[in-house]
Design goal:
The complex is a heterodimer of chains A (261) and B (206). Chain A has 261 residues and is of the alpha+beta class. Helices cover 41% and strands 21% of the residues of chain A. Classes of the chains: A alpha+beta (261), B alpha/beta (206). Chains A and B meet through helix 2 and helix 8 of A and helix 8 and helix 9 of B.
Chain lengths: 261, 206
Amino acid sequence: MPPRARLYKTEAIILRGRKLGEADRILTLFTPTFGKMEAKAKGVRKTTSRLSGHLQPLNRCQLQLARGHVSDVITGCETLASFRGLRDDLDLLSRALYVAELTDRMTADHVQSLPTYRLLLDTLGRLESSPAPDTVLRFFEMQLLDQSGFRPELERCVGCGNALEPVDNFFAPVAGGTVCRQCVPGLAGPRVMTLNGLKVLRLLQRGSYNDVARVNVPPALAEEVERHLRSYIIGVLERNVNAAAFIDHLRREGARTKIEV
Amino acid sequence: MNERTTSTAAPLARLIEEFYRLPGIGPKSAQRLAYYLLRMPAADAHSLAEAIVEVKDKVTLCSTCQNVTEVDPCRICTDSGRDRSIMCVVEEPLDILALERTGSYHGLYHVLHGAISPMDGIGPDDLKVSELLDRLRAGETKEIILATNPNLEGEATSMYLSRLIGPLGLRVTRLARGLPAGGDLEYADDLTLTRAIEGRQEMDGA
């Protein structure tokens, strides 16, 4: 919980905002000290607001907050990083918003997690500079699952507990991980997981980002890995991640434009 | 709400409930409004009721620009004095009011009825984007001004639209983003300042 002093300061990454009343916004912040929290930003929808430019989603900023009865109120703000590269490119922006939404959905209020803050910050930075933004997303997804206590089992079969044979196996999000051929009958929603798919997922789980970035994953394999991770995340959250639909929309339109050209 | 209004006359309780559903109206405001209406002259109350019914019955969306209107096509779309080669794309009908107040724009409009907000699941298909493309393909427009809000959702919408409109070969412009009138330079954020520097303009008459 935040300290009891009337005013306090914290660094934060702004995940999202929603409108409140005439000109206010409730912001969802991720902070290194208090984890995820909400705060009210008064008057930020007016053009004369001194804070509004600093309080856009995906900004990393230094905040001063005043304790309020219901939610704390932001009284001062200075931008530390605005990740401009993400804002000027729609494909990167849609992925950055996916990162923000997933962080919001996977974490609970007021649970401090410095590793998650670091992961979020690193991921936004990597998205801005990496030539393979989708790899950045996969690494983020796997690490966030790990940090939130939903690490998928990728070493053994979740049915019989035996180590997996180096062949094509299955992945069952509901069961929590990989399943061998013998245990698959009767399970809900298993999908074939190729041996290479399994290797990439294991690397995402155990390797560092630099290890992952060095590997060149062919498009079909990247698609398989994305499909497995997405189905697992949907299983954990018991809902879709909204921003993923927009990424898909842009991909579809991009593909269509290429065909027309 | 229910337990609070059980001692109230049923029609009054219903009115309070109805007010309570409006945005920004809490339980106390709902009660105050309902009791105010109760004491109001009957003619005024009827006039208010008629206005509500009329607005629902008569006001529709203009089939051309999607603005709210009681005649279709709306007055702006049929105004022969307006420049038909330029179109301003806004998020909400209220944005048109703000732009019209300036008196410095004489082209046409198109209302999207929202902005792309991926995290809230609002995508291009939820906005009046296909209607916009149909209008642009019809061919009168030479320039399109993207006047969405200068926030994350508005920027995303503008980027998406410019990508979509690009192949049509029109001039696509974006409202200038920079320092607000009456603002203080020291409080401006980096992004706003950067855009203000990029969009700086020649001073004439020096």
